[in-house]
Fold this sequence. Notes:
Blueprint: E1 3-9, H1 15-24, E2 32-38, H2 50-58, H3 75-78, E3 81-84, H4 87-96, H5 100-104, E4 106-108, H6 129-153
Parallel strand pairs: 1-2, 1-3, 3-4
The protein binds 4-nitrophenyl phosphate.
EC number: 3.1.3.48
Pfam families: LMWPc
GO molecular function: protein tyrosine phosphatase activity
Amino acid sequence: MPVKVLMVCLGNICRSPLAEGILASKLPADKFIVDSAGTGSWHVGHCPDKRSIDVARKNGINISAQKGRQIKSSDFDEFDYIYVMDNSNFRDVVHLAKTPEHKSKVRLILNELFPDENVDVPDPYYGSANGFDNVYQMLDEVTDLIADQLLKKHS
Ligand code: 4NP
């Protein structure tokens, strides 16, 4: 059974599609499944934001085939790890979790790099293109760590 990791943000068009693509590029596809979802429903069925597609492409990762979806209750059973991008996502996702076991799967992603500091991956949607480079760098750094942890734990 592959280990399943879900990346979550608000819209599922900027941050979590990048987190999905970057982490998936660091893990063997036969052992790990990485997916992403939004807490909101505005972008269900949409491609990632062009600025996320562009920054990923610039770094050799193709996220253009992803389609937005909203997080659902069955995700808490299906996924082993649920990483959220910011504190607001954390509150929303924990609120949807129905059991302590489900809640325990939810982690604020940058706490892997900065334990207990509760730092957000900033939402780049309303900002400049440079915000997307910044988000890419943060996610690249933290997914190095997450990929190492997952490979150690599940191999
Ligand atoms: P994301 O960014 O959560 O990183 O995908 C957003 C994208 C769209 C919206 C909000 C955040 N929106 O309100 O449409």
